[in-house]
Amino acid sequence: MASLSGAAVSLLAIFMVLQLSSVAMATDYMVGDDRGWTGNYSYADWASKINFVVGDNLVFKYDNTKHDVYIVNGTMFQNCTVPDKNQVLPRSGYNVIPLNSPGKSWYICGVPNHCEKLGMKLAVNALPNAAPPEQKSAASSLLYSASLPFFVAMLAAATISV
Questions:
Q1: Is the dihedral of CA 125, 126, 131, 137 positive or negative?
Q2: CA 20 to 30 Å from 86, out of 14, 55, 111, 147?
Q3: What is residue 86's predicted lDDT score, i.e. its pLDDT?
Q4: CA separation for the pair 154, 10 (Å, rounded)
Q5: 14 DSSP assignment
Q6: What's the pLDDT tens digit per position in 37-59?
Q7: Is 51 within 8 Å of 87 (Cβ atoms)?
Q8: Entry's Pfam families (predicted)?
Q9: Using one digit for the tens of pLDDT, what is the confidence trace for 77-97?
């Protein structure tokens, strides 16, 4: 019976790896790494070293008594133009911004002179996911729902019989 137990464990392991491999993993990127969102740092250099993809998150960590984060368009980014105060992200000191669609997005600090003189501006280009999420049909969802308990039961039976 030991060989049945080994086979059951192997089948369960293969099944779980196949299921997990179909899940796309998002990455959280701390803007500015350990420095966070602060002045006198090249966010262009920081961003140039990363291949952002749809589903990733930008994490802005900063002193909320000194800085803020605005999502802007390309022209506002180039000119360091601060939009209406209603468009600022919550000034919490910690903002997570998901990259939901491919293309460019731009961010600036709206505190006077921080964008222009301290370089607090970030542009990123999110690439499409390499593999779009698989759309499961009702039949494949039912098959998955039925197969997982079967493999777990096989593993339990093999373990008990050993």
A1: negative
A2: 55
A3: 72
A4: 11
A5: H
A6: 999 999 999 999 999 999 999 99
A7: no
A8: Cu_bind_like
A9: 999 999 987 778 899 999 999
The structure tokens listed for 136 are 């499961």
Cα 69 to Cα 24, 118, 156: the distances in Å are: 28, 14, 52
CA distance linking residue 132 with residue 99, whole number of Å:
15
The DSSP code for 130 is S
CB contact at 8 A, 77 and 108: yes
CA dihedral 109, 112, 113, 119 (to 10 degrees): 0
Kindly state the tokens that stand for 94.
């910690």
Which 3 state secondary structure label does DSSP give 97?
A: strand
The domain 28-126: what is its CATH number?
2.60.40.420
